[in-house]
């Protein structure tokens, strides 16, 4: 009988409740703030990190999950009798974490040739951030409780990830300026004019889809962009930060427009907040093929 373990990283923004309920193992990114080093989800929760971020004058830096950490994890899961490990990582274009996992799997099989055919490691590139792949992990883990074979679960997860799009917006350019995502001069002009970029994340890339003037224009524009691309009657999620009111505003607008509520809400952790800031809102959905 198959014994499947789901593995992901803390940038998936899966809640602690779902982590425990579905027995998902989350590997946590480390965050350096000056001379101090912290581990996501252990040394701080999201609310505490938002405050730390606001108080810190420098630029926090996240470190990749190493091949050694993955190899140790694979060794442990193999010794515990798992038959399959489905590991989904943060966007491979934004972190070396996925490549480290692939390297670790190769090293594991080199050290344990007898494991081939008995212990299968599936490494999936999340191609995005937050609930874009966190949702796939949660759904995959739910399917495993219904005895869906690992290969079928992986096919489902890869299909979601391949077609998943996020439209989101930060409510300030302060953090994007600090992290270098937006040049200082452009950030200054944008703040003076009240411009807010609407970002689109898909297939490893983050691009500015459009800009709106003023905070009140953010939700209507994200709503408009989402319904034009989303496959009708498919599930969607809300992404948000420290302000639950904009989460609720986005959820209510989507529910009114498409006729059903979001299936999950993902609160951004350190990996996203460092660049976008703590106040964001957006929608995660499956897009129509173009």
Task: Describe the model.
- The chain has 290 residues and is of the alpha/beta class.
- It has 11 helices and 13 strands.
- A 6-stranded mixed beta sheet has the order 10-9-8-13-11-12, sandwiched between helices. Strands 2-1-6-7 form a 4-stranded parallel beta sheet, with helices on both faces. A 3-stranded antiparallel beta sheet has the order 4-3-5, with helices on one face.
- The longest helix is centred in the middle third of the chain and has 15 residues, at 97-111.
- The N and C termini lie far apart (40 Å).
Descriptors:
11 helices; 13 strands; globular; 25% strand; 290 residues; Rossmann fold; 2 domains; six-stranded mixed beta sheet; 42% helix; alpha/beta; Hypothetical Protein Tm841, Chain: A,domain 3
Structure summary:
The protein contains 11 helices and 13 strands. It is an alpha/beta fold. The longest helix is centred in the middle third of the chain and has 15 residues, at 97-111.
Number of helices: 11
Question: From the helix content, strand content and strand pairing, which structural class follows?
Answer: alpha/beta
CATH topology of the largest domain: Rossmann fold
Tell me the CATH architecture of the largest domain: 3-Layer(aba) Sandwich
Order of helices and strands: EHEEEHEHEHEHHEHHEEHEHEHE
**Which whole number gives the mean pLDDT?**
93
What spatial form do the alpha-carbon principal axes imply?
Answer: globular
> pLDDT below 50 for ≥5 consecutive residues: which ranges?
182-189
Strand order of the largest sheet: 10-9-8-13-11-12
- CATH C-level label of the largest domain: Alpha Beta
Helix content: 40-55%
Assembly level? single chain
Structurally, the number of domains stands at 2
Number of beta strands:
13
Strand content: 15-25%
Protein name: DegV family protein
Pfam family, one: DegV
GO molecular function, one term: lipid binding
Keywords: Lipid-binding
